[in-house]
Amino acid sequence: MRDYLIEKLYECSKKPYQKYFKKNEPWKIDKTALMDFPKDSLGYGLGSFLHNNHFDIQEKLEDHDIIHVLTNTGISVYEEIGMQYYLFGNGKRSLYLYMVILSGTIFYPKRLNYFFQQYNRGKKALPFHYLDFSKMLFMPVQSIQQTFNI
Question: What's the whole-model pTM score?
Answer without folding.
Answer: 0.88
